[in-house]
Amino acid sequence: MNLKSLWALLKKPTARYSLGSLLAMGTAFGIIFWGGFNTVVEMTNTEQFCLSCHEMRDNVYPEYKETIHYNNRTGVRATCPDCHVPKDWTYKMVRKVQATKELWGKMTGSIDTREKFEAKRLDLARSEWARMKASDSRECRNCHGLAYMDTAKQKQRARKQHEMAREDNMTCIDCHKGIAHHKPEGMTEEDEE
C-alpha cells in the first residue's frame, strides 16, 4: 500500500466521519485520558492526600513526625509516598491496585477509630513488612543503599550490622521495623526477625 492509497483510506468516510477524523479524535481523546489519569495518580502520591484520611493523620502521622525521616540534621525528608509507593510506573500501578484494599477498609469503617486501627495495626504492619521484604525494600533503597554506605564512618554497631546484612543478603526491613512508625503491640519473635 503506497502513501497515496493510505491517505485515500484515511479520508474515506465511514457512515458519518472519515477514518482520519476518527483517528485524530481517538488520538486526542487518548492524550487527554492519559494526561488526566497521570494527574490523578500524581495527586494521590502526595503526603497531603495521605493525610486527608483521618486514619493516617490521627494514628501514624504523629508518630512519624517524631522520627528522623521527618526531621533531621540534613533537611532531607521522606514523605508517605516516598516509603509506601514505588517510583517505577509498573510497580506504582501494582501498588495503587493493592491500595484499593486500604480504601475498602476506610469505606467500610473497619479502621475508622483509633481502637479499630490499633486492633488491626499488627496485621497492617505485617502486610507492609511483607510487601517491603518482597521488593527488597525498594523504596528504602531510593535513598539508602548498602553498596554506597561508607561503613567506616558509621558507629561500630551500625557498621557491624550493615556488613552482616550485606553478607547475608538482608533487606532494610529485616532490621528497621519501627523506624518511621511505632511497632505494633503483640509482635512475636517471628515479627522481629
Number of strands: 0
Cα distance spanning the termini = 65 Å
CATH topology of the largest domain: Multiheme cytochrome fold
* Rounded mean pLDDT score: 89
Q: Quickly give the structural class.
A: mainly alpha
Beta-strand content estimate: under 5%
Order of helices and strands: HHHHHHHHHH
**Can you tell me the number of structural domains?**
2
What is the number of helices? 10
**Radius of gyration, taken over Cα atoms and rounded to an integer in Å:** 24 Å
Biggest β-sheet, characterized? Answer: none
Overall shape: elongated
Range of helix content:
55-70%
CATH class of the largest domain: Mainly Alpha
Residue runs with pLDDT of under 50 for 5 or more positions: none
CATH architecture of the largest domain: Orthogonal Bundle
Brief synopsis:
The protein has 193 residues and is mainly alpha-helical.
What secondary-structure arrangement, pairings included, does this model have?
Elements: H1 3-11, H2 19-43, H3 47-51, H4 54-64, H5 80-84, H6 89-108, H7 114-134, H8 156-167, H9 172-175, H10 189-192
